[in-house]
Model the fold of this input.
Amino acid sequence: MKNLLILALSGLFLTACLFGADKGSSSVSSGTVEKVCRLLTDRYGSDAAMSIERGVSQAASLWRAEDGSEKDFETFCQENYVGDPAKKELLFRRLDEQFESLMGHFNKLSLDLKAPLHLDRGEIQPIDLILGQYEPSAHLSDDLFLNKAAFLIVLNFPYYTLTEKSTLGAGWNPLQWGYVRMGERFLARVPAHVNQLISDATTRADNYISGYNIPMGGLVTPKGKTLFPENLRLISHWGLRDELKGRYADPKGLEKQKTIYELMKRIITQEIPSRFIDSKGLRYDPLNNLLYDDKGGKVAFKVGEGAERYERFLEIVQAMKALDAYYPELPTHIARRFEADREIPEVQVEALFTKLLTSPAFAKTAKLIEKRLGRKVEPFDIWYDGFKSRSSLSEELLDKMVAEKFPNTIAFQNHIEKILLTLGFTPEQAAFIAPKIEVDPARGSGHAWGAGMRSEKAHLRTRVPAGGMNYKGFNIAMHELGHNVEQTISLHKVANYSLNGVPNTAFTEALAFVFQARDLDILGMAKKDPKGKDLNALDDYWAACEIAGVALVDMKVWHWAYEHPEATAESLQAETIKIAKEVWNRYYAPVFKVKDQTVLAIYSHMIDGALYLPDYPLGHIIAFQLQSYLEGKPLGPEVERIFSAGRIVPQQWMKNAVGEEISVEPLLKATETALKNQAIR
Ligand SMILES: [Zn+2]
Done:
């Protein structure tokens, strides 16, 4: 009883504060909302009062003058609110069916329009680029508001906050979850000019990032020595980071790594002369921040000239803020990212990251790295990649085996059922899933694209060279097959279409990694390598620690930007650097024994990704937890049980999957075991 009261009060509070304070440009007065609620409650009884109030308030918040008068709104609600539970279920089933058709066909259209870009079908024509970028469903939401279908849906299947989904959702059946997902299709009504603003800011940021190429041949040490091939151009930051990682295998790599690190610091502070970016013939010494021409003469430049990094970042922040007014329930970009996109509260995400970083395993792993490198760790060793377990089998032999087994895409297609059986799927499952996956020859390295409706197939895109598939291609194809299997199960085996899918990408990646890791089983060469398991855990943990710090910086900078609407590119730069140092000093300095490093701010996705970075460490944590659980279990039945839950909230999904919420414990435990086996205490 007490719980019910609290629930009722919080429901009222929610309605009052979410829809009362800021109605956006709603044209319905609170008086009309109250009147409609009263009329409907009189008709359907007080038990329905809360659901009526929710639906009416939310529909009103989206209603604009051009949709009709207040009287029209009143009539619309009276005619379209479905108070009878059986009729409501009927309405849901009908909508669910129609949305499968709508979304499924739009998905099919996109697949077809992009096919010339994605598939190995000869030269790309200019028209392919135009049509490949065309988004056929772009006007769907507008159309459904125009014909009032969206209002009918919101009125009957209103929105629930993440807190409500997290608490009440534990008791919801799949039908109730379907109701919630149905209503979420129409969270906001964003005008075209605001979408354009975001699209423009994103395009400018993407162009800025994709044009930020460093001519590595121009980098010199203070003594003027070049270190990299003259024609090597690397994009910041991925290219630079991967080059740095690759140098662990190079006996003379340390000097190169140090030079790349100095360069990264100059990019973060924007002290790097902008005329060096994408240049030819110039020489740049990042340690002393000196620029030379091709004859060795000093080139004068003003520090910070043409600095654009934080202008682009600020523009993204401002574009995202322009959405705030249209999401009364989620009035900041931060809230939308965590509560709507990820559906994990920010405090929980932050707690997971800090738990990784404050574990004693962090310093112990650094100690192990020092042992393996034979030197003290440097700050750039956050990218140490020496834990990658490399197969002891020769790649040549594997290439040969794979090419014989899979001379073309059809051979791989015909083998899917057998692959599933080998991995532990039952004959019924394998026979059900295999025909629902189509293998296409890819232009690039490959990807997996799921179906949007049950009558369509999932697509596995893989590249098979003329002489047959090679081992690398096979390894990637196994990863993509994992995605396809998830896509098929979470489309066909969920209780209703509105629930199809997984909570977020980390959950599908987990299964893709499981498939990829078992690739040798398919070749009959299953490796029994106990050390490999330890190395995997260490590699995952170290990578998760690196990106957790980066994500914390991203999160803190966004909070600062929201608290400082007057921010300029200059103040955003200063604050980003300050926050990067603070996060470093708190979690990394005790391990690396050096303070005030800015490196956690180097990620390009911080500039153009609009708070995307927390997805990476979450991905590591979720994937590891799921993989550890699946180890040694009958894969097929477990995968079907787990992934047929569909798109419920992540914490409940994980609880249903492995018996507990999202946790770093499996990763920490495996790391501790690995450290013990390596005699690190
Ligand atoms: Zn993947």
